[in-house]
Amino acid sequence: MLWDLYQQSQIRATQAKVESASNRTKDVRDSVLKLEDRTDRLALTTMAMWALMSEKLGITEADLEAKIQEIDLSDGRLDGKVRVQAKTCPSCNRKLSKRHNKCMYCGAETSPGLGSL
């Protein structure tokens, strides 16, 4: 009888773990689908922007590739990624969030730079 109670409690605990894992899997799947949708929209927007720039401004693929390489090298590495370095407040010299243009310590305004992308 005690053994049966123990086994039932183990079964319930295992079922709870399975349900929790299933919920986490669903959350991850939803996140991936959202990222795929966002990537598709970004790709479409990029293609439209490139079409407009090449048609209206006469920008060539060589011009685009040169600018991509220039931006890629802005962090010191040609690796196909943009890595924005943390900014330093010009007023109090503390490290700042890459996302904000105002120091949270002293309130000084900072320049936007690539951190605002």
Helix-strand layout with pairing:
Blueprint (H helix, E strand, L loop, with lengths): L1 H56 L3 H12 L14 E2 L6 E2 L21
Antiparallel strand pairs: 1-2
Keywords:
2 helices, two-stranded antiparallel ribbon, mainly alpha, flat, 2 strands, 117 residues
Give a structural overview:
The chain has 117 residues and is mainly alpha-helical. The protein is built from 2 helices and 2 strands. A two-stranded antiparallel sheet has the order 1-2. Strand 1 and strand 2 form a beta hairpin. It starts with a helix and ends in a 21-residue tail after the last strand.
Short précis:
This protein has helices spanning 2-57, 61-72; strands spanning 87-88, 95-96. With 117 residues, the chain is mostly helical.
